[in-house]
Amino acid sequence: MHDATLPANVRLGPNSLITGDYLTRDRAFRLFRSRLDPGLVIGASCTMDGVMFNVGPEARIEIGDHCYFQEATLISDLEIRIGCRVVIGWHATVIDADFHPSDAAARMAAWGSGKLLSLAQGEADLDALHEIAFAKPTGMAYGDLYTMTAQFTARAGVALWRRMMVLGPPPEFCLVARSSVHLPAQFTPEPRTRRQI
Asked: pTM of the full predicted structure?
């Protein structure tokens, strides 16, 4: 049940309610632009009281059963999934964080994710398009890893990059080169091809 007409691509479960006061009632779907069908799914027996759905053109929000949200804002540029029996209180904002400019660049990347790296060995080469992602083998010291990779990074156009802290998806290291490089199997190498954006 809702005070106004729902967008055609919204699925509202049985015994669920979308409502608001005189300030929020007309704003619930003002920024709902999803072209997906469904763009919003709300499960059974939910109350969305004063909730604003800011949903981008290619985004979707799914909310489970028996949820209660009051005066919350849901902002999605890709996807938000909220489970069953969830309570979100006053003035809370849930964001999928894929609308930040750096995330837009990451979505253009081959694997749809970005990471913050620091140069560990070699020289950066912006034209190098071959990447081998790999993790430090369990039990291997970092010094030993750097000793083993030095034979590759001594070559022109080859650089070893390390993920900074936990900022980005695993694995922790990547070797970037102008041409293909073959790492020992103990590194569990994942060859990738980069593209310039």
From this structure: 0.50
Range of the domain at 167: 110-193
**Residue at a domain's end among 51, 71, 99:** 99
Residues 136 and 81 placed together within one structural domain of the fold: no
pLDDT in tens, the chain (197 residues): 444 689 999 999 999 999 887 667 778 998 999 999 999 999 999 999 999 999 999 999 999 999 999 999 999 988 999 999 999 988 899 998 645 555 554 554 545 555 677 889 998 887 888 899 998 999 999 999 999 999 999 998 899 998 876 555 678 899 999 888 889 999 899 988 777 65
Q: Is residue 1 part of a domain?
A: no
The residue from 70, 99, 128 where one domain ends is 99
SS (H, E, C) the chain: CECCCCCCCEEECCCCEEECCCCCHHHCCCCECCCCCCCEEECCCCEEECCEEEECCCCEEEECCCCEEECCEEEECCEEEECCCCEECCCCEEECCCCCHHHHHHHHCCCCCCCCEEEEEECCCCCCCEEEEECCCCCCCHHHHHHHHHHHHCCCCEEEEEECCCCCCCCCEEEEECCCCCCCHHHCCEEEECCCC
